[in-house]
């Protein structure tokens, strides 16, 4: 007798087109279901990546969205979470190899979506930090705001976003032409994208990798020996970018 797990795996394989339908899975009905699932995935991609779609062009976007929907399954079953790796699909496409800004533009749109949906963090507990002895500081792991993301790109992503998604980009207060590290964060005023200097960006990235303070400091100073770590950390805390720590 076929187990439930085996039946589910067979259905998933047939849905992806990896295997012929078996048992009670009629081909015609399976095709209808498969097309419905792929159409929903394509619609989710179009809703998330409006600026990328405009920058890429309709024909290229429809082609890549169809390929992604057919080959990349949802990992959660929630279409709101679908498309996190669409930038990788764009980057792997040989027809768009000369348009290197497109994957990063897609990453920006996904980061904006994640920041918009992320939970709020409580205020930083400065009293708890002050209560620790200096010997305990090295092993601290600082936490960054859930509603923030760091994106580093050689392309002027915000300018591209403004050009191709003007109804949303009007709220993004960052100078045109900015390249390098940009911080995407949610504030009471909405989504903000601001340039981040290399040293603060390196410290943010180290905390995002869950490094201890000692390791993070070593990483930052390795690339930015003149960085004032204390001032940089204080600035990230004051701006609500670093929101806590664990011992």
Number of DSSP strands? 5
Order of the strands making up the biggest sheet:
2-3-4
The SS-based structural class is: mainly alpha
Number of helices, where a helix is a run of at least 4 consecutive DSSP H or I residues: 13
Q: For the report, how would you describe the main beta sheet?
A: 3 strands, antiparallel
Features:
13 helices; single chain; mainly alpha; 247 residues
Give a short synopsis of this structure.
This protein has 247 residues and is mainly α. The chain has 13 helices and five strands. The chain has a domain at 1-99.
Description:
The chain has 247 residues and is mostly helical. It has a domain at 1-99. The protein is 53% helix and 12% strand. The protein is built from 13 helices and five strands. The protein has helices at 4-16, 27-48, 50-56, 58-71, 86-91, 101-117, 126-130, 134-137, 157-164, 166-169, 198-208, 213-223, 229-238, and strands spanning 141-144, 148-153, 180-187, 190-195, 242-246. Strands 2-3-4 form a three-stranded antiparallel beta sheet, sandwiched between helices. A two-stranded antiparallel ribbon has the order 1-5. The longest helix has 22 residues, at 27-48. The mean pLDDT is 88.
Strand-helix topology:
Elements lengths: L3 H13 L10 H22 L1 H7 L1 H14 L14 H6 L9 H17 L8 H5 L3 H4 L3 E4 L3 E6 L3 H8 L1 H4 L10 E8 L2 E6 L2 H11 L4 H11 L5 H10 L3 E5 L1
Antiparallel strand pairs: 1-5, 2-3, 3-4
Helix pairs in contact: 2-4, 3-4, 3-6, 3-9, 6-9, 11-12
């Amino acid at each position: 007798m076929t187990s439930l797990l085996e039946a589910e795996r067979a259905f998933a394989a047939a849905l992806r087109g990896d295997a012929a339908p078996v048992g009670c899975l009629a081909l015609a009905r399976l095709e209808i279901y498969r097309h419905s699932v792929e159409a929903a995935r394509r619609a989710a991609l179009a809703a998330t990546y409006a600026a990328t779609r405009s920058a890429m062009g309709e024909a290229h976007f429809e082609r890549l969205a169809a390929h992604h929907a057919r080959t990349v399954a949802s990992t959660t079953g929630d279409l709101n979470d679908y498309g996190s790796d669409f930038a990788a699909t764009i980057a792997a496409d040989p027809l768009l190899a000369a348009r290197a800004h497109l994957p990063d533009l897609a990453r920006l749109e996904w980061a904006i979506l994640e920041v918009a949906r992320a939970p709020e963090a409580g205020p930083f507990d400065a009293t708890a930090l002050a209560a620790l002895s200096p010997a305990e500081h090295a092993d601290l792991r600082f936490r960054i705001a859930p509603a923030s993301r760091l994106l580093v790109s050689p392309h002027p992503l915000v300018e591209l976003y403004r050009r191709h998604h003007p109804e949303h980009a009007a709220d993004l207060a960052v100078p045109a032409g900015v390249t390098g590290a940009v911080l995407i964060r949610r504030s009471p005023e909405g989504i903000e994208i601001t340039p981040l200097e290399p040293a603060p960006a390196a410290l943010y990235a180290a905390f995002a990798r869950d490094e201890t303070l000692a390791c993070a400091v070593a990483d930052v100073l390795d690339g930015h020996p003149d960085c004032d770590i204390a001032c940089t950390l204080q600035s990230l805390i004051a701006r609500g970018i670093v929101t806590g720590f664990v011992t």
